[in-house]
Structure formats: C-alpha cells, structure tokens
Give the backbone structure.
Amino acid sequence: MPSPNLSLILTLLLLISTATATATATATTATTAVVPLSFKEAPKFYNSPNCPSAHDICSDNAVHVAMTLDAAYLRGSMAAILSVLQHSSCPENIRFHFVASTSAHTDNIHLIISTSFPYLRFNVYTFDDSAVLGLISTSIRSALDCPLNYARNYLADLLPLCVKKVVYLDSDLVLVDDISKLAATPSDQKVLAAPEYCNANFTSYFTPTFWSNPSLSVSFSDRNACYFNTGVMVIDLVRWREGDYTTKIIEWMELQKRMRIYELGSLPPFLLVFAGKIAPVDHRWNQHGLGGDNFEGHCRDLHPGPVSLLHWSGKGKPWDRLDGNRACPLDALWAPYDLLQTSNVLEA
C-alpha cells in the first residue's frame, strides 16, 4: 500500500493531469468557436445593356430573393448567392433579403456578406426564435428542428410592405439559370408558385392520428395531394398578407403540439395550407433531393430533364462531403461556387 506521502503525490499528479486536459479541451473548443469562416471576394457582375433601372428597394424592376443565414449553412449560402449573381442577366437589379436568428451576430453577418460581395444590395433582418420555439415538434433529423427553418413563414411580416413578390431559396442549392425567369412565374392568382409533384403519397407525411380524424383528413378531400419542396418558392407577399397565411400555418403548428399530426418539421404545415393550391413551376427549377435521404444522405442522380437549379436537400451537404473526401459525383457541380478561403474542394 503506498505511503501517505506517495498517495498525496499521486493525487496531486492526477489533479494536475485532469486540470491540464480540461484546460486544453476548453482552449481547443474556444479556439474552434472564435475562428470564423473566411470567404474570398466574389467577382462583380454587371447588368446587360437592356436591363431596366432598379436602384430602389421598392422598384418594380427589382428581383427580390430571400434566404436564411446561420453558421452551419453559411458556406452554402455564399455559394448560392454567387450562383444567383453569376447566371443573372441583370445582377445589379437583384435585392437580397437575409434573415438571421436573434442569437446570431448580425453585424458579423453583414460584414461577411459585404466583404465577399462589396456591391451587393441586401438587407439583414432579425428573426425572433421565441416566435416558434414553443411550436416546434421533434423531427426525424435535428437539423429540421432549427427555429430558423420556420422564418419563411414570417417573410411577409419581415420584409418591407413595398416588396410585393419574393423568391425564397434554401442555402443548400445553386442556380445555373437566370433567376429572373423564376421570379416571373405567372401566379395564376395563387399565393405560392413552386415545382409540384402530384403522385406523392401523403400517408408518410402525416400520422395515423391525422388520417383517422375525419375533421382533419377532410383537409385534402377537395384538392390534389401535391407535394412541393419549400426550399424554392415564389411568394406573392400581397396575397399572403391579405389572406393572413402566417396565422393559418401557426394554427396547424399549434394543433401539432397537442395531437402530433405530422412528421418532417416545417414542411407539413405548408402542405396543409397550400398543397394542391399553388401555381406550378417547371421541375427544372428544383432538382431537389441531391443530399440524399434524411437518414443516410446517400448519393443521388439528377431527375430526368433540363436543370436550372440544383438542390442538395436531404442529410448530405456538398461542402461536408467534399471536405470529408467522400464526395458524390454531383457535388463537383457545387464546388465552383464555393467561396471558402481555405477550401480544399474540387477545382472547377
């Protein structure tokens, strides 16, 4: 048995070792937390000679694009912005509206965007997480439960009243076509326009509780159960405000908290309110699902047909797979838009 002095020495050594390890781990974590992503400056893109003037945010010639910004997807957002500008015939007419969480440092976000895109016309809006925190139900993937995913519900409240129409884009996509074509989609007097898929099986989106309750399932009795991906939408903000659609979505979310009527986070409330009632958009404008399923994120191919927008919806994101040397073939199409300063991804 060790002597008392030896026991004391061993105890002190153990405490010192533990303290050192803890300090090292803390320092490592702190270093990781404070090192921001560094992005390259993007080239400036100019209007073609026949572009109308749209210097004012309220101009009818402006093309409005809304995106959410958070740390986990910022790299994707920067690539998406670049792709929009690069393929636009009138890039100086595009006005970006970025929505950030109350927990984000909006000054830093403003600096990052303006440093990489010095001539970009944009506004940053703060979204109050508390507006939806009590309404979010656990989903099949934690990323789907982020409060910022629900900010698209509140765009009509956040954006200036003079903004009548906006193209909402997720952060995990790139455009390879002129966004003004998408923005010009005929609304057919509808609130939303998006690519839709009318052979969808809605059974997987909603629970047996929903389908077994006649007062709930009747919601789809007079319309086609057409799925649409909310990552690419053209929103008529005037009609949205007139119909108070934010409240309609919130009412379904409140019911979900009481009865658990759906899965998959922020999508089902949109389906309950809008499915079968939107203006159709050609499927070329949302080649979605490139991130694979929500569990494994396996590689997927493009859908048949032309492509104007590639969307890595699903678990697998191209920047993560490229950094991890496990890229899918289509991730090479995202890589040329990556502005990360220290990126080791594939070169164009």
